[in-house]
Write a structure and sequence with these properties.
With 326 residues, the protein is of the alpha+beta class. Helices cover 18% and strands 14% of the residues. It contains seven helices and eleven strands. A four-stranded antiparallel β-sheet has the order 1-2-5-11, with no helix packed on it. The protein has a four-stranded mixed β-sheet with strand order 9-8-6-10, with helices on one face. A hairpin with a 6-residue loop joins strand 1 and strand 2.
Length: 326
């Protein structure tokens, strides 16, 4: 784990793949549906306006403190968590071919695909319109790379700050609907109502910015390295699109809680670090870069910055070498 000094260096180094802060006139983006070119598949995106918010919480765990002011550039975020319908064409070439309306382009075919899992990665919880599960952080970014090859549009994981900003949707309460956890059942599949499994996306109420299942169902990868003292390193600083740039295999930040989570772990500010124990039963040596066979509670939500990065910056984001996990 990086030291406090390296944590400070990370927070002050803002990657260029983040969009620059735009004026209100430039923020008037609209929802849209992204067709995955050459296939029958598509997904919807919601506009998230740029702005400022207080990140963190005084009511949660120490890693959520202190509260600090953050400025966020506008972006789009996927309306729903990524589903198996959209993930399997990346996972299985034969599935991609079956869902294609034309031959698979060479640049798409060249994207490295995950090793086929030795388990049923749905864990019997359902596939159609259900969130895709248990991919590693590396796997999630490689899916974004495949999507870029298919669409020509830069999609990526949200930063931790973007995720919390979008989740709060202008609110300062524990949840985007208020402080009353008894209302969670209207917005989330979690320990109290999930029956111990995922559910089809979009069945609960959305947050004020039109995003479904931010709380519960599956936890969602962010791009950031998990640093428990991350917020303490930025106290009193003016922050624009902060991110803890990942340079180690563990831990990365997961947000939103899952179908297994209690109400306290679904709060807008709650943070979860990834854990190598999630590969404990993996028989491969070295262990898979692609799957967490003991984490059927992690998924993906996509982001598209309003201001796209350069081709070189895109290449840097997608093509970081995998770190071996022994």
């Amino acid at each position: 784990m990086p030291s406090k000094f390296s944590s400070l260096k990370i927070i002050l180094t803002v990657p260029l793949f983040l969009s620059t802060f735009l004026s209100p006139a430039q923020e008037k983006e609209k929802p849209y549906v992204q067709k995955i070119e050459g296939t029958t598949l598509s997904f919807s995106m919601q506009p998230i306006p740029g702005g400022e918010f207080l990140m963190g919480s005084t009511k949660g765990k120490p890693d959520e403190q202190p509260l600090h002011q953050v400025k966020i550039s506008p972006f789009w975020m996927s309306t729903y968590e990524l589903t198996w319908d959209l993930y399997e064409p990346f996972l299985y070439k034969d599935y991609e071919t079956a869902n294609s309306t034309s031959p698979v382009p060479a640049n798409v075919d060249a994207v490295t695909r995950p090793t086929k899992p030795y388990l049923d990665m749905t864990f019997g919880m359902g596939k159609e319109n259900h969130p895709a599960l248990a991919m590693t952080h590396f796997n999630a970014i490689q899916y974004c790379k495949w999507l870029y090859a298919r669409t020509g549009i830069f999609y990526r994981l949200p930063t931790e700050a973007e995720w919390e900003y979008a989740c709060r949707a202008g609110t300062t309460t524990t949840y985007s609907f208020g402080d009353d956890a008894t209302q969670l059942g209207d917005f989330a599949w979690y320990a109290a109502n999930s029956g111990g499994k995922t559910h089809a996306v979009g069945l609960k109420k959305p947050n004020p910015w039109g995003l479904f299942d931010l709380y519960g169902n599956v936890g969602e990868w962010t791009y950031d390295q998990y640093l428990p003292d991350f917020y303490a390193t930025v106290k009193g600083k003016q922050l624009q699109d902060p991110v803890a740039v990942p340079d180690q295999l563990y831990a990365h930040v997961i947000r939103g809680g899952s179908y297994e989570s209690e109400a306290a772990n679904l709060r807008s500010a709650a943070r979860l670090p990834s854990d190598p124990v999630w590969k404990q039963l993996d028989p491969q040596i070295p262990k898979s870069n692609w799957w967490f066979p003991e984490a059927p509670f992690i998924g993906i939500r996509l982001v598209r910055p309003v201001s796209p990065p350069s081709p070189a910056e895109i290449d840097t984001y997608y093509n970081q070498p995998a770190i071996s996990d022994f």
